[in-house]
Amino acid sequence: MSNLDRAPVPSVCGGRGFVVAEPVRELLSPRHVKLGESTEVRRLLPNLGRRMIGAWAFVDHYGPDDIADEPGMQVPPHPHMGLQTVSWLHEGEVLHRDSTGSLQTIRPKELGLMTSGRAISHSEESPKSHARFLHGAQLWVALPDAHRHTEPRFEHHAELPTVTAPGLTATVLLGDLDGATSPGTTYTPIVGADLALARGADVRLPLVPDFEYGVLSMSGEVHVDGVPVLPGSMLYLGCGRGELPLRAESDAGVMLLGGEPFAEELIMWWNFVGRSQEEIVRAREDWMKGDRFGQVQGYDGEPLRAPELPELPLKPRGRVR
Question: Does the keyword Iron belong to this entry (predicted)?
Answer without folding.
Answer: yes
